């Protein structure tokens, strides 16, 4: 084993983070591939702190991939609400059903990449952590560690390929799963974006950026383009019996398959599109949310709806079945602002 890998694994054996999906080093057993896969999907573009609670609720409700495969779509989407990037939840279900039909997860990176929602990084991570395959696993933490270890000054995202090549230099054939998690932990706990703790890093003696005094400035990043702003109107209607007027968004696209408040497509200008004829009142506040590629501003209109209301392409959800926590984050923001506009609140 390369000495660099040996030094890092020695550090990891003492300082590994305790995470609900992880088998601690020295436990003598392999990690459960279902839990590894589920955690990796949840962690895509999401923090460990945000994921822990969701992971524990998911695994309590669906403890195996077979249990998840037989879950109702709306139940899974409801549990996912708040994690964002809802295409992940749709692919999660698709993948669980394919894996169940096939009798289990494939054990190779190539086989894993053939499953819905699993790309090169996720496939490498699952293969290494669950099956101890010597795959090169590079997430954002690993990119940062490698940029500093080898003083790679080229900015991201253009430098990704070079950083993967650097990561391959130290990936060992022995304990590759522990090594992959060790580099992630190093980036998350010591080699942090700001004020890296170089003095206690197991690689402090060989880190080229530390020797040059430029560790904190790496990795460099290309300037980000300003995000455009899209606008829309969210219509929050409540029927006389307490039922709420909601719509299920199309299966593809943002918030696909999720319940939300009716409205026209979002654009440069907010379009009026009441889902039913009523006395809609503007509450004078807007819900603001940022997606990956744009900022969203939603004006909010509310109305008390008569029992005989017949909506277009929307549905009434009985009060007993309505859980604000099942709404995606932007729609929950709308509800939080709108509920006070009704005489008796929620």
What does this structure look like?
This protein has helices at residues 3-15, 33-43, 48-61, 65-69, 73-80, 87-102, 109-113, 120-131, 140-149, 160-170, 176-189, 208-212, 329-338, and strands spanning 229-239, 244-248, 259-260, 281-290, 295-305, 315-317. It has 346 residues and is an alpha+beta fold. Strands 1, 2, 3, 4, 5 and 6 form a six-stranded mixed sheet that branches. The longest helix is centred in the first third of the chain and has 16 residues, at 87-102.
- The string of secondary-structure elements, in order, is HHHHHHHHHHHHEEEEEEH
Number of helices: 13
The percentage of residues in β strands lies in 5-15%
Distance between the termini: 61 Å
Rg for CA atoms = 24 Å
Low-pLDDT ranges: none
Return the structural class. alpha+beta
Structure summary, number of beta strands:
6
Largest beta-sheet characterization: 6 strands, mixed
Q: Summarize model confidence as the mean pLDDT.
A: 94
Helical content, roughly? Answer: 25-40%
Q: What's the shape?
A: elongated
Which features would summarize this protein structure in a list?
single chain; elongated; 13 helices; 346 residues; six-stranded mixed sheet
Architecture blueprint of SSEs:
Blueprint: H1 3-15, H2 33-43, H3 48-61, H4 65-69, H5 73-80, H6 87-102, H7 109-113, H8 120-131, H9 140-149, H10 160-170, H11 176-189, H12 208-212, E1 229-239, E2 244-248, E3 259-260, E4 281-290, E5 295-305, E6 315-317, H13 329-338
Parallel strand pairs: 1-5
Antiparallel strand pairs: 1-2, 2-3, 2-6, 4-5
Helix pairs in contact: 1-11, 2-3, 2-8, 8-11, 9-10, 9-11
């Amino acid at each position: 084993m390369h000495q660099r890998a040996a030094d890092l694994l020695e550090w990891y054996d003492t300082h590994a983070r305790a995470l609900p999906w992880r088998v601690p080093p020295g436990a003598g057993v392999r990690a459960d591939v279902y839990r590894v896969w589920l955690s990796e999907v949840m962690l895509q573009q999401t923090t460990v702190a945000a994921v822990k609670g969701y992971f524990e609720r998911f695994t309590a409700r669906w403890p195996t991939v077979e249990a998840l495969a037989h879950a109702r779509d709306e139940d899974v989407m409801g549990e996912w609400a708040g994690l964002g990037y809802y295409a992940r939840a749709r692919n999660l279900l698709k993948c669980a059903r394919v894996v169940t039909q096939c009798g289990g997860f494939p054990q190779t990176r190539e086989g894993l990449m053939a499953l819905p929602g699993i790309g090169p990084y996720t496939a490498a991570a699952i293969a290494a952590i669950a099956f101890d395959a010597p795959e090169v696993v590079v997430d954002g933490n690993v990119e940062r560690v490698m940029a500093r270890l080898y003083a790679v000054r080229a900015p991201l995202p253009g430098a990704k390929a070079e950083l993967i090549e650097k990561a391959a230099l130290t990936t060992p054939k022995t304990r590759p799963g522990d090594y992959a998690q060790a580099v992630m932990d190093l980036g998350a706990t010591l080699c942090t974006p700001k004020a890296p703790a170089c003095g206690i890093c197991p690689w402090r003696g060989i880190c080229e950026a530390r020797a040059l005094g430029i560790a904190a400035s790496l990795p460099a990043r290309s300037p980000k383009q300003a995000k455009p702003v899209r606008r829309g109107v969210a219509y929050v209607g409540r029927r006389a019996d307490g039922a709420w007027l909601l719509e299920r968004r199309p299966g593809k696209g943002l918030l696909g398959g999720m319940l939300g408040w009716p409205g026209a497509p979002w654009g440069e200008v907010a379009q009026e599109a009441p889902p039913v004829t009523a006395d809609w009142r503007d509450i004078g506040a807007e819900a603001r949310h940022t997606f990956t590629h744009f900022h969203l501003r939603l004006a909010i209109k509310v109305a008390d709806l008569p029992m005989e209301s017949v909506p277009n392409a929307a549905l009434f959800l009985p009060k007993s079945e309505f859980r604000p926590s099942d709404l995606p984050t932007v729609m929950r923001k709308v509800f939080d602002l709108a509920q006070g506009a009704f005489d008796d609140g929620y």
